[in-house]
Design brief:
The structure holds 2 protein chains of 2 kinds. Chain A is an all-alpha fold. Chain A contains 14 helices and 2 strands; from the N terminus they run H-H-H-H-E-E-H-H-H-H-H-H-H-H-H-H. Chain A has a two-stranded antiparallel sheet. In chain A, helix 3 crosses helix 13, helix 5 runs antiparallel to helix 11 and helix 6 runs antiparallel to helix 9. The relative contact order of chain A is 0.15. A two-stranded antiparallel ribbon of chain B has the order 1-2. In chain B, strand 1 and strand 2 form a beta hairpin. In chain B, helix 5 runs parallel beside helix 13 and helix 7 runs parallel beside helix 11. The radius of gyration of chain B is 25 Å and the shape is globular. Classes of the chains: A mainly alpha, B mainly alpha. Chains A and B meet through helix 7, helix 11, helix 12 and helix 13 of A and helix 1, helix 6, helix 7, helix 10 and helix 11 of B.
Amino acid sequence: MTTEALAADEIGPPAPVPASTGARAVWRKLRRERAAMVGLAVVVLLILVAVAAPLLTAIEGQDYTTYHDTLLNSARGGVPTGDLGGIGGAHWLGVEPQTGRDLFARVVYGARVSLAVAISATVLQLLIGLAVGLTAGLAGRIADGVLSRFTDLILAFPSLIFSIALLGIVPQSFPRPVLLVLVLALFGWAGTARIARGQALTLKTRDYVAAARLAGGGGFRLARREILPGLAAPVITYAALMVPGNIIAEAGLSFLGVGINPPTPSWGQMLSAATTWFGGDPMYVFVPGVLLFVTVLSFTLLGDGLRNALDPRSTNLSRRAE
Amino acid sequence: MARYLLKRVLGALVVLLVLSAVVYLIFYALPGNPAQLVCGPKTCQADQLHRIEVGLGLDQPIWLQYWHFLVGIVAGRTYSGGPEVIHCAAPCLGYSYQTGEPVTGLLLDRLPVSLSLIVGGFVIWVTVGVALGVLSALRRGRAVDRIATGLTLAGNSTPVFLVGLLLLIVFCVYLRWLPFPGYQALTVNPLLWAQNLILPWVALSVVSAAVYTRLTRTSMLETLSEDHIRTFRAYGLPERRVIGRHALRGALTPLITIGTIDLATSLTGTTLTESLFGLPGLGQLLVSSVRNIDLPVVVGVTLLAGAVIVVANAAADVLYSVADRRVALA
């Protein structure tokens, strides 16, 4: 797979890898995975929607902060008037109960938060994981011992509990999305570190790496030019499946009220608000809920497809299954 | 074996010590002035603040406070804030800033709720997950397998609070089969206890069962392709016996590790479920104490969670080595 992804990162010429795992071959395999392609299409669409959120809400003619009291049925406790939570030409996905804020605008802006936090957290987790894992795998036994223990410690950490506590106690003046990314990254890198360390230990003994070492390359240069390319496949697979995990984590933390703060909308926060309205206005659960579900599912399908395309062994297995 | 156990226990103790230090230092160093927090919303005079500081030992350097905290857990500690002297018996985790109750007592009060939730959920998700996983491995590529794979994917992609909300809409609003859940103690009325917990159990199980289905399927397929299974078949052992006795045993052994650790993680990892269904368990205690910056309670819950996970990790290793004799204890 190496070439394309690595060129993007400017990592240098790829290590000699079998031609069948080149980027083009992976794309060919990926294209045959129907589920993965559907996932990819939805992911691209979601990213476009998130990027174009201001444009889309401008076309709709709404924003996510304006209250619309006139659209609410005060006799029924403030649920939206009209069927299906007030869905119509003016409000494409209806309005929020109690406030009457436009739901389309809120979920579209929520997509921004959700994707931005999840993707940034994944990138940060990858960087930390690669740094720790490669150092552990290449820098000798003492470094390996210390870093591996540390990785084990993080894996055994009650991370959800700790994240909730940390998010709740850091002063509210700290920008929340940044804080969320940092907290997610703090506990999410250990898996990547383990994979990177394992691969580095294996690749270290390969002939081409030994040759490079003999030729005078060492340390950082060796890691960058000879080991990293060999790591790309397992790490990319793992990363693709980290994104949905981060999306769920962000939604969960926001659901508990320690994630994204109002007025910035987020799906988890909306579902949390919906817990008092699900009886009178189930659409308020469905709209952010379906979006959250579809997003996580699409990323997972894409990740599974990438795994099949990148790992020749698992491709064989799935083919044998059919 | 004895040496291995000793090593494992010592290792777990070190991890616990590091964990407690990190948790304590971070949470007590972060939020400004804890004495002000004890005072609550009312404004305290400077001398009152000072008395609180001295009484709780907050005027000492933080590493010394941490030392007293550790001693308190092992041997109990005595607070002397002015005229009154309070003795807090071991394991002492301090007193809630919010209510003044001992943290240890608070944790013990909430424990049965969380236990009820996870034990019931665990039984459901392991049963459903393993059954579905075995079934889909045995019928690989057929309809059952495809349906199970689809369900796994859906379960994996649905956050527990979303499953819970959907269950509430269906069973409490539309069908009206169940009242909105509220916790009832098992000891008071077992029937009401189960009735109130059934939705939280199911919500919790959907996500976890998906994980177990996938793991069981993979593990079962792997075991079925092993040589000894082929040998048994070649000997003409009935298929039911090959699968029921030999394949299942091999396939389910790896699940022991995951199951033990899962059970431990769930003890406090069910915060979302507790929060949605209004169950007064450990997770909810954490959320409310975080909201009030009730430091002793936050530290108490976090440490308990960590301790349970560390112990479970060690227990899982030992259990695994007992179940699978091929694993040498090193």
